[in-house]
Amino acid sequence: QKEVEQNSGPLSVPEGAIASLNCTYSDRVSQSFFWYRQYSGKSPELIMSIYSNGDKEDGRFTAQLNKASQYVSLLIRDSQPSDSATYLCASRRGTGRRALTFGSGTRLQVQP
Amino acid sequence: DARVTQTPRHKVTEMGQEVTMRCQPILGHNTVFWYRQTMMQGLELLAYFRNRAPLDDSGMPKDRFSAEMPDATLATLKIQPSEPRDSAVYFCASGLVLGSEGPPEAFFGQGTRLTVV
Fold it and tell me: Is A13 helix (H, G, I), strand (E, B) or coil?
């Protein structure tokens, strides 16, 4: 079992809809979680971080964390074609030597 | 414009040759990561430095890969000898950690696309 699991997709949504991206993790010691967006041929770009249970909103993006269920999600409201990319979920332990561990990513396609 | 700078952006080399990739972290950042990305494996951590000291290089094949930070503004990843299976995009990322907290958010460079033929 991979430490961070994501559905590879593609997840296809119409323009203006809500896109829901999900991620589960196996390491209960993980305390912080990150969502990166990666356009084809480009580098990953940090878009959200979340450390506490509940929701965190930033513009059209909402990250949700449920540590009891070991589940992280990213909601994108009013999806735009420019949101079409691969979204990578990453986790990290609170302390220690481990760096960020990434999932394999979910490819999102927003249809105009 | 603070960003991580990687050179070269593209590298094609023959099997058996030495490859050196360079990274300039964001000024003031004290943590550097090297990741490798392939279609099959996704993003894999190769090495992780804090204050120029290696903290985790367990993901790096030691027989052919080496990573160093000669100074705070330069990190290098070297492959010798290179093999076709090393073909991938190699990303450097940097971050800032204060005190004893764990690894920071990582800000990525543009990557080096390596092709070994």
Answer: strand
